[in-house]
Amino acid sequence: MGEKLKIAVMGASGRMGRMLIDTILDSDKADLIGVTERPGHDWIGHDLGEALGRPPMGVPVYGDPLDLIVKAQAIIDFTTPEATLAHAALTAQARCIHVIGTTGFSDQDIAALDAAARHATIIRAGNMSLGVNLLTRLAQQVAAALDEDFDIEIVEAHHKHKVDAPSGTALMLGEAAAAGRGIELASHSDRGRDGITGARTDGHIGFSAIRGGDIVGEHDVIFAGAGERIVLRHVASDRAIFARGALKAALWGQGKGPGHFSMASVLGLA
């Protein structure tokens, strides 16, 4: 067996961070060499095992991402757009694999990530699961097969603590459907309907967001025509699917060189 990939997790104390930690620790292909937390967090300077209430792991918790990124071959990043952009500037300098599961980026943010990808291997996806990426491909194919007589609506549901809407996955599905139709999503998107909105615009892609409880993630792509509907659906019941996908992406990124990749590339769907 070859040398294990040295991976760091950015933002360790959240639900996704803890899931990533356990996924990497269970892998025989990767080593967890450190994690980060936001400035002022109680975990900084401690052993990760002790911070989690477990036996010592020999994995330090860093406050300064630079101190860890220079030691890592890959980082996995499910943080915030602001933090991820700061990390991308560092991974570009370190020529490090940067797996990004963060969502909520603006067009300007994506441009900054594109610039960093000229030097680093960036793998970014609104959703890291195999099922969602297959759903994305199916949404594009169905949209390409149907004309504007079929309206496209994307309905997504997540837990009450999610801060962005539509979800990154919903937008990924919308982009796929728009690509199938040969249109730009930005100019053919309906969001946040409320009050007297008028009739639905033909050819637009609608989004609806549900927030509540502990919903991990549910996404429906609805193609609604006269007298019939086609519904493509994915339901995530375990957050571990995202952690496993992120680890798969990090391992895939070895030796790929600079570029801004998606999970479709990782899964051979591109």
TrEMBL record:
**Intracellular or extracellular location(s):** Cytoplasm
Show where the Dihydrodipicolinate reductase C-terminal domain sits: 131-267
Positions contributing to NADP(+) binding: R38
Binding-site list for NAD(+) = G11, A12, S13, G14, R15, M16, E37, G101, T102, T103, A125, G126, N127, M128
Q: EC number(s) in its UniProt entry?
A: 1.17.1.8
Question: Which residue ranges does the record assign to the Dihydrodipicolinate reductase N-terminal domain?
Answer: 6-128
Q: Which UniProt keywords apply?
A: Amino-acid biosynthesis, Cytoplasm, Diaminopimelate biosynthesis, Lysine biosynthesis, NAD, NADP, Oxidoreductase
Which InterPro entries does this UniProt record tie to the protein? DapB_C, DapB_N, DapB_N_CS, DHDPR_bac, NAD(P)-bd_dom_sf
Active site residues according to the UniProt entry: H158 (proton donor/acceptor), K162 (proton donor)
Write down the SUPFAM superfamilies for this protein, in alphabetical order: Glyceraldehyde-3-phosphate dehydrogenase-like, C-terminal domain, NAD(P)-binding Rossmann-fold domains
Q: Which residues form a coiled coil?
A: none
Q: Which GO terms describe its biological process?
A: diaminopimelate biosynthetic process; lysine biosynthetic process via diaminopimelate
> Is Cell cycle one of the keywords?
no
What domain of life does the native source organism fall in? Bacteria
Report residues binding (S)-2,3,4,5-tetrahydrodipicolinate.
H159, G168, T169
Q: Please tell me where this protein is predominantly located.
A: cytoplasm
Catalysed reactions, semicolon-separated: (S)-2,3,4,5-tetrahydrodipicolinate + NADP(+) + H2O = (2S,4S)-4-hydroxy-2,3,4,5-tetrahydrodipicolinate + NADPH + H(+); (S)-2,3,4,5-tetrahydrodipicolinate + NAD(+) + H2O = (2S,4S)-4-hydroxy-2,3,4,5-tetrahydrodipicolinate + NADH + H(+)
Keyword Cytoplasm part of the UniProt annotation: yes
Cellular component terms (Gene Ontology):
cytosol
Assembly information from the UniProt record: Homotetramer.
Physiological role = Catalyzes the conversion of 4-hydroxy-tetrahydrodipicolinate (HTPA) to tetrahydrodipicolinate.
Q: What is this protein called?
A: 4-hydroxy-tetrahydrodipicolinate reductase
Origin species: Roseicyclus elongatus DSM 19469
State the gene name recorded for this protein: dapB
